[in-house]
User: Fold this.
Amino acid sequence: MARARKLFPIYGSALANSMLVALVHDRLVDRFVAAYVADYDRRGILGGPARERELAETIGREILLAMIVEVREILPAFFGKKQMNKLKSEEKEAIDAFSRELLAALARAQNWNGEDRRQFRRDLALYSDSSARHEVAAQTRKKGMAVEEEAAAKTRKKGKAVEEEAPFIARVALLLDPSMLEQARRAARKFHGGVGLLARKLLRKTLG
Assistant:
């Protein structure tokens, strides 16, 4: 159980702290917004300190949700497994304890009240469900299980179905620039990839 010891709950607290440091001290949201404004000449979305605080808080929350989902997806790899359903019961328990402390530490640091915590968990469930559907679809394509599924996927792609994308993309785009959603979605999609890579980096650093 050497691997399970790496996932003692205290490491959940450490990861939460690293996530918040990246958000606040590394100014993830500020840098994302500044790049978007420069790339698309959208200085009009800026409205002074109050608007900057609003974006930092709301987009920052979406970043936390996306990072948590990314972390949950890759944790089985620390036990040498690719999927959660391949884990032993004690390994699942270690991951559950780690995840609970991660969420609790974020809530403490952010001074969330009961309703804040409940809403965050609801949104996290939304993100997690979307990620699970994406994984199932990916596995189906990889195994070549159903020709009609492939045809349906191509049809959805042509129709640019929003439901195939992570919730992060649409939500961040709406927060960032609701009057120019398509370009905001492009920026959010690229940003989402970077957030996932950052989550992986922070987890590796935390667990050593």
Notes: Residues 2 and 79 are 9 Å apart (CA to CA). The chain has one domain: 2-174+181-207. Confidence is low (pLDDT under 50) at residues 157-162.
